[in-house]
Every structure is written in C-alpha cells, then in structure tokens.
Amino acid sequence: FERRGSVHGVLRYLIDHGVALPDRGRGGPARGEVVWRRPHRGAILNMLTSPTYAGAYVFGRRRAGDPCVGARRRSGPPSRRQEDWRVLLPDRWPAYISWSAYEENQERLSANRSKHKGVPRGGPSLLAGILFCGRCGHRMVTCYRNNGRDLRYECTRDQINHGAPRCQSLGGGALDGLVTGLLLEVLRPSAIEVSLQLAEDVELERARRHRQWALRLEQARYEVERAERQHDAVEPENRLVARTLEQRWEAALAAEAGLREEHARFVAREPPRLTAADREAIRALAEDIPALWRAATATAAERKAIARLLLERVEVTVAGASENAEVVCRWAGGRHSRHALVRSVRYTTQLSRHAELLERIRTAHAQGLRPPAIARALCADGWRSAHGKGFTEGSVRALLTRMGVLSTSPKRPSAVAVRHQDELTVAEIAARLNLPEGTVYNWLYKGRLPARRVAAAWHTLWLLRLDDVEALLRQRAGRSRLPPRRAPS
After folding, report:
1. Closest Cα to residue 388, out of 433, 431, 348, 426?
2. What is the pLDDT of residues 271-319, one digit of tens each?
3. Phi/psi class of residue 19: alpha, beta or left (left: φ > 0; alpha: ψ in -120 to 50)?
4. Any long-range contacts for 226-235 (C-beta under 8 Å, 24+ apart)?
5. How many CA within 13 A on the CB side of residue 231?
6. Residue 1, Cα to own-chain centre: how many angstroms?
7. Ordered DSSP codes for 157-222
8. Residue 260, Cα to own-chain centre: how many angstroms?
9. Do the beta carbons of residue 155 and residue 140 sit within 8 Å?
10. Cα–Cα distance, 449 to 423 (Å, whole number)
C-alpha cells in the first residue's frame, strides 16, 4: 500500500501476482477454518483500517443502536476516527506495522476520497490536488479544454456554493513549467542516490515475490502430506472413509501440480537480474534527470507522484487581473520558497505595464519607425504580448490602430473612372453583344480596336465604344452573323 498508494493498486498487484488472502469459513464443513480466497477490495480495506494489525486493542468502533426501537446493539460500519472509539490500548498485540505507519495509511486513505487530493491520475496536470488559491485558501480545480490540450486552474468554490464571482484562474502551462524547473533542480543533486535506490528496490521486489511463491508452495506441499497421513492412518475396513480421504489426497496433489506449473510460468516471465552493465546504465540515466522527466515512457501519473513526494502544497496568487502572479511552494520537511510567475492574459489592457507599452510604441512611431521595426525593438527589450509571446508586425499595427495613430480606413485612390457618354468597359461590351470577355481583350491587345486606358483605384480599365466593336464584327463576319444586342439593364 505504501508503494501503490491506493486500495485498487494493492488489489491489482495481488491479482497480477496470484497472491490469495486468508479468510475464515462462515458455513459448511470449513466453518471456522482458514480458507485462502481470491483478493477482494473489502478484505484489503478491512486489513488497512483495522488497528489490530498495528498492535492496538480497540473497543467500541461501531455505533450503538437504540434499544427502544428494537435496533441492533451495534449497527453501521466501524468508525475510522479515533475520537469515536470507546477504548484504545496500543501495544497489546504483536504488530505487523507500527502505529505511525497505521496513521499514515489512514491519512492516505482519507486523501484518496474525491474531495481530497487523491492518488495521482493520468491527466497532464502536474499540480492537480495540491494547488491552492492564495486568496481564499480553497483547493483549485483542474480544467481541460480543447480535447485536453489546454490546461487551466480555476478557483470556483465560492462561485459554485454561494454564487459569488470567480476568485481567480490562470493557464496551467506556465505554472507547471515553473514547478517542473524547481523539481528538477531539487532532484539533480540526488541523482546517484536515486539510481542506487532504484536498483535496490528492483531486487527487493524480486525477493518479495519469490518469498511469496515459496510460502505458497510450502503450504501446498503441507496439504499433500497432511492428506497422505490421514489416508494412511485410516483402517482398511473403513472403505467409505478411505475413499473420501483418497479423493482429498488426489485433489491436494492436483492443486500442488497446478501451483508448480503456475510457478514455472512465473519464473519464465521473471525479468533477468540486473548486471553490472545494467546498473551503470541506470546510473547514467539518473544523471540526466531532465531527459528522464521528459521521456515518452514517463507517464503523467509518475510525474505527479514525484511532485507529491517533494511538495506538500503549492499556493498561487494572481495580482488583480494582470499577468503577474506569486507562487509559494511548501516543500516536504517544512521549507517554503516564493517565486514570481508571468502568466498569459486575454487582453493587452490587463498587462501591468500597459500604459508604458503604449507610450513606447507611440514614441517609436513618432521617430519614424515602421511597425516591423517597432516589433523587433520591443522583442529585443524583452517586452511580451498578452499571450506571453513576442510582438509581431500585426500586433504592433493593431495597437497603433487602437491608439488612433493609424487610421482604420486609410485614404484610398478613387475607384470611379471618368469616361465619355458612349464609352463602355470590356465587361459591359461582352454583356451587350453576348461575347466572351477574352475575345474582346484579344482584339484590344492586337490593336484591332481603338480604346482608352484609365486608372481606377489600384487597377486600370479599358474603355471603348460600342460602335467600334460592332464595326469590327461586321468586317469579320458580315452583317447577317452579327449577334443581337442585349438591352441595357
């Protein structure tokens, strides 16, 4: 439980390694005898919450019923709070774990509930469960948007419970990046110790699994020998008893054979022992903690577990609606550290140096600098936009427009072409005579039609007379093939 962190984690470990749990038979011929059963969540939880395994005698863990209404003397599940117990006498039984370890287990079980920080889960958030609001002290919730690609921390307790405005919120990318850098700085000096502890843990885990299998094989062999002794001790004339004992003996032999086959499969799947070269490889990897942290094989839950081992809680306080925030890290052991954070905001007006930024841009524009040059100067001086990125030509031009320095509708050349009464454009000629525009342009470029070229806005227009086009058509095809005119719209 100390390594897995949850009841479900312990359950999965026992099932994966084929470890059974003992239970007292409650009915039938095995009543009162120890029976080894498949692991069950309730049995694991009872073992973790029972103070007997910590060597303490406890009385009165269940609430007493009301005898006036016919209730049972004891009802409900046993209480886990020590203040509800009527009697608590420590150090009365042989203890499997210390009392301090028992209390730590209860704290972790309580933290695993939904309203507490719980065990690390698979979301990309690094500080889920340990991040608190520096204004009101409530735990901040984790929000994933854009299919989980955008992370945001929000303090919404008073908003949900009392209808108050949202306390504060900020993007999680910058905050997680800051805390990640702090964690890597803390982990770097202990890289060698981490690598050696990892190698030792691997061997200890191997020894524990082999010890479990040795005990299971020993128990199976004991059952076989016991059944054999019972069969040999029966009188030959008691055929019915002998037949029953023989069936038990055969069942015990079959169970032992099945267990040995399962053990053989376990040994075949067991990873090889770490060689000297493997230990050196682990030590080399441990020296590069940042690479291990960012490796594709490292999961978000593992990063969270490391963060929770080193950090008790993180508090963040945003200065108003600006981009500045203060982060307080409370490390394991009682040490505190304060750090400044620059977050991204939605609008430029939220920047704490907004007035200074506008004055800088206005001064640069007055000196004759164009928006690209202003953007380069701002980036060189370390200015950042509302989204935490460098300024670009477009962002500078947008600010100049909002300031009124650049007009939103600059003076454009006139798009009205001055023409005579009988002049038409190429599009109008093509529509009147039912001709393709390309044909008319072809005649213009070859000089077969007299025309005049005038400017309109940023373009030029060809103006020509309808009579000249009709004359050219009669010359080329004859009057009978002249296409009919269309009435002007």
Report:
1. 348
2. 777 677 776 776 666 667 777 788 888 888 888 888 888 888 899 999 9
3. beta
4. 226/252, 227/251, 227/252
5. 16
6. 24
7. HHHHHH-PPP-EEEEHHHHHHHHHHHHHHHHGGGHHHHHHHHHHHHHHHHHHHHHHHHHHHHHHHH
8. 43
9. yes
10. 13
